[in-house]
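Quick log. Single chain, no ligands specified.
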Amino acid sequence: MLILGDVAATGFSLSAGLERCEARDTRRISRMASYWLSETALPRTAAVVEDPDVVVIGGGVTGCAAALRLAEAGRRVRLYDARAVAEGASGRNGGFALRGMPAAFDVTAESVGEETARALTAWTERAIDTIESLAGDAFRRVGSLRIAVDDEERDELRAEYEALTGAGFAAEWVDGYEPPFDTRFTAALRHVPDGVLQPARWVRRLAGLAAEAGVEIRERERIDSLDEFGGATVVVCTDGYPSGLLGPIEGLIIPTRGQVIATEPIPERIFEVPHYGRHGFDYWHQAEDGRIVAGGFRDVSFDAEFTADEQLTEPVQRALHAFVNDLLGRELRVDYAWPGIFGMVMDFLPVVGRVPELENVWVAGGYSGHGNVLGFACGELVARAVAGEDAPFLDVFDPARLLNADG
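-> predicted structure:
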C-alpha cells in the first residue's frame, strides 16, 4: 500500500475540473516561461575552435553530450544553437529521468527482441548513472511511479513489471493506495533506478564541461545551410525542432508540443517521486521548492499538438490547471507555464546514425518524450560513431528506417 500524503483530494474528473475552471481566467499565470530556465545560467569557459572537424547543431542535452564526448576523443568541435544552451526542449520538459525506451519494456521486447530490449534498458540505466555522476545537485535519484488509472492500465503495468523482473531489472509493484488516492489510482509500477532533474541546470552544466574540454559554443546563431562547413562532419541534434538540414528524413521525426505548468510552492511534500499515468498523457512531481510541476493532456486536443509551434493553448492549459487543483483538493496559483517541442517517432525508438543521401551528416533525436536520459545516451552514442569507436544499436536506431515506414 502506498501513502502519498495528507491531502483532501477525491477521484479526478476532467470534465468536472474543466467546468470549475470556466469560472475563472485560467490564462492568468505569473510567467509564461519555463520554471527551469528562470534559474540564472552561470558563466562558462569561452573556447575558440578554428577549422572544426565536427560541427554540432543543437545546444540541448544531445548536442552537449555529443560535443563533450567528441572533444574528449580529440576532435575539434564547434556547437551552434539558434537560441542559448538548454533553451529548447532540454529546458522545457517535465524534468523526468527515466530508464528504457519510450514504450514499455515488454512492448519494446516484442518490437526488437528480448535480448536487444535488455541491452537497451541496461544502456539507459548506465546513462542515468553517468548523469548522476556529472549533474550534481541538478539530479535526484528517487525512482519513478508509472500509475494505473483503470484496470486496463493496471494489467499493462503488471505485464511490464513481470517482464522487467523476469529479465533481472529492479522494479517494485505497488498494489493499491491509501485514501484519498485509492479511488484515483489502482496500482503502480516503481522503476527503481529513475530520478528527477532540474534539466536546464543539468544541460548548462554539461555545456560547461564541453567548453572546458575545448568545445566552442556559439549561441543565437541559426544554421540554415551546411555549405559553409566544407568537409567537416555535421551532427544534427535538434530532436523535434525542424532544422531544414536532414534532407530526405526532414519532418519524419514528428514535431510534437508538450505543455507544462509549475504551481506556487506548497509546504507539504506529497509527490517527491515522478508520477506518470494514462500512458504518459499525465505526468507530475514536486520540485525541491515545493512546486507541483505537471504536464501532459495532449489528448484533449490531440491533432493540434503535432506541431512545432511553441505556444500555450487554452484547452491543454485548462486541463492541466483542473488536474492539479483536483489532485490537491484546492486551487493553486500557477506561477509558470511553458511549451516545448519534442520529436515523436512512430516505432518509439530513437533515430541515430548517418542521414541517408547526405555526405558527412549524422543525426541523433526522436526520443518521443523521453529525451532527458535517451538524449544524453544518444548524444554519447552518435559521438562514438563519428569518432570511429564501437557504437552499439545503430542498426536498431538507423535513420533509413524512417524512409521505409508504412504510411
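The chain has nine helices and 17 strands.
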